[in-house]
């Protein structure tokens, strides 16, 4: 019997098989976890890990054995019962998915404890002894197949991963819809509830197989954390699946390497690395990370401040247009009108952007580009005031503040739609002229 890969030293062979089997088991969990995250069933793995205990007891009572195969069958049956009953309670029992899951797994776990005490009190029968194991011991339990010594958990892990991949390939169209709304998928003939049932079945099998390989902490972590990390990095399902697989592979390799260096639990360190990846994604994600959100929020604040200044200068010119040779507005007057949100840096930014010009020290007026931008802002403000009065009957003293908040979020399409609904009004409720439409703001003179 060949202990493959025989070309390498024994230490490397142990590490090789540990990492390979870990990647197979953890990748299956991560791929299925993407759908659990999207279905808001992320704690299904933790629930199943508690709920399988009655299955272990019944398997022992029927077979008088604690060998893996009967324990596996009993655990899978109760895992599927957990998911099925929780879904039944959510559908027909007026319970949310989370509460239904909590009701079922806590009841099953309590039932399992009672059965152990009543019927198997003198037998060392618990999840730690039967299903949970240390991943470091994977290369020590070998079987002979084709003249090669394979870890006994390699083929079950490979078969589960192959089943998950085949399921994804064959039912990709159905899964894309069922992942978000199985009822809608069923309504349009895509077997949404069937896809959900298959997901629960695969999750149950994956969890029970992974208990033997990696232990409960790691399987629950890989069902949730890589998928949650991938969701921070992308909004597309196919990319989410690929990223989840890559992330859990990196976490498996890095976690094992660090556990070897620090002589600690490999499964625990792999779970920690999944958490580290999530933390890094949470901070550095280009679309949803804390840094990106900070700069996006800051940019929004800067834009709102700039638009407030442009609106103030535009209205100043409106009020003064009847006065011959009226002076431009000063920075002090702008600050008084804008209020606490005013920043002197906003004026400098608008000058750099050629929206404002300063004909004299401390005085400011709009450039042609600034005039167009300010006209769009004021137009949206006054259209929204008119809309609020016409559609909701708000009194005049309640219109300005609401419109002031909304003017920064109205694009050209929204302004045109409001104008069309109102019948192209010429004035706002206060009798002020609504500026005309600029059809192409980027090219208008």
Structure description:
The N and C termini lie far apart (83 Å). Strand 1 and strand 2 form a beta hairpin. The protein has two domains: 10-285, ABC transporter involved in vitamin B12 uptake, BtuC, CATH 1.10.3470; 294-422, Winged helix-like DNA-binding domain superfamily/Winged helix DNA-binding domain (Arc Repressor Mutant, subunit A, Orthogonal Bundle), CATH 1.10.10. The chain is mostly helical and 445 residues long. The protein contains 19 helices and five strands.
CATH homology superfamily name of the largest domain: ABC transporter involved in vitamin B12 uptake, BtuC
Give the SSE order as H and E letters.
HHHHHHEEHHHHHHHHEHHEEHHH
CATH architectural label of the largest domain: Orthogonal Bundle
Instruction: Name the strands of the widest sheet in spatial order.
Output: 3-5-4
Radius of gyration: 32 Å
In total, how many domains does the architecture comprise? 2
Unreliably modeled segments: 125-132, 440-445
End-to-end separation: 83 Å
Average pLDDT metric: 84
| CATH C-level category of the largest domain | Mainly Alpha
Helical residue percent? 55-70%
